[in-house]
Every structure is written in C-alpha cells, then in structure tokens.
Amino acid sequence: MEHNIARIALFAAMIAALGLVPQITLGFGVPITAQSLGVMLAGAVLGARRGAAAVGLFILLVALGLPLLAGGRGGLGVFVSPTAGFALGFPVAAFATGLFVERVRLPLAGLRAGLGAVFGGIVVLYLLGAAGLALVTGKSLGEAFALVAVFIPGDLLKAAITGMLVQALSKVRPETLAWHRGVAGAGDRRL
C-alpha cells in the first residue's frame, strides 16, 4: 500500500517538474508543455487507476493554488481558461493510457505503451482539450480542433518517448509494470 502511495506521489511530482521545462504559448492561450509526457508515462507505467490517481493528485494541488502547471499557473482560474479541458482531461488521459496498456495485448511493452500514450495522451486528451477550448473561447468544436492540431507532432514524439522509456523499464525492472506479464521484451534481459 505504501509503495503505491509513494509511486503515485512520485509521478505527481514528476509531472510538476516537467512544468519547469521552458514552454511556448501559442496565440490562443494553450502552451506547448512537457507535462503531457508525464501524464502519458503515469498511465503507461502505473496503469489506469494509479496513473489517474497520480495525475488527479497533481490537478488537486493545482486547484489548491500551487503554481505547478507550465508557466507557473495554478488555482481555480485554470479551470475556466482556454486550457481547462486539457487540465481536467489529464487524469482521464492517464486512465485511458493505463487502460490501453492493461487490456490490449501487443508483442512489445514499448509498442503497447507508445500506442496507449497515443490513445490516451492524444486522442482522449485532445477530445477533452478541444471541447474545453471551444467552450471557453466560444469557437466551434471544429475550430478548436484545428487550433490544437499544431500540438500533434510534439505529442506523437512524447508518445514515442513513452514507448521507449517503458520498453527500457520492462527490461531493467519489469516488476514496476503491473501489466508486464506475457509481453515479449518485458523482463527479458537478452533483448
């Protein structure tokens, strides 16, 4: 139990630390940030429930006013800004990523995690992020999707990084991945 709590807290801290990476804010108020990589990794490593719990803890700390989001943002105002859908979507994205890696059988742990990150960290997160952007800015859903589409190449890179890190982790410490059993390359130190 304590081990799970420590891992959840560790991933929440990692997401906060990724907010320190310099960001670029686009004209419509949504920044390019490394924090979505942390969301992808939380789901891919911890699984659906614990990954969502880690990201939920991070979002709770943001709501309480800690300036943990990229650019030093925090507080309830975040949840009525153009980024509201993304912030509220972070725990859902981690859950979806984790659910994918837990349920979809693929031959390599890294492939499983990378595709899970695309599903949760891009498809699910963009649906929620674009919906929030449309709601806050008064744009149509199509316009909001067109605006956030500029993030896709960077997020595909983050999904690939997630896959590579999880593949390496599956070789070195497969026991840290609750879903690792039966995946080629997971725990096989010869690969």
From TrEMBL:
Residue ranges that the Swiss-Prot or TrEMBL entry lists as coiled coil: none
Transmembrane residue ranges: 6-30, 51-70, 76-101, 113-138, 144-166
Q: What Gene3D superfamilies would the database entry show?
A: 1.10.1760.20
Specify the superkingdom: Bacteria
The subcellular location is: Cell membrane
Q: Which GO terms describe its molecular function?
A: biotin transmembrane transporter activity
Identify the GO cellular component terms for this protein. plasma membrane
Database matches in Pfam families: BioY
Q: How does it sit in the membrane?
A: Multi-pass membrane protein
Keywords recorded for this protein, A-Z: Cell membrane, Membrane, Transmembrane, Transmembrane helix, Transport
Keyword Membrane in the entry? The reply is yes
Family to which this protein belongs: Belongs to the BioY family.
Q: By what name is this protein known?
A: Biotin transporter
What organism, scientifically named, is this protein from? Amaricoccus solimangrovi
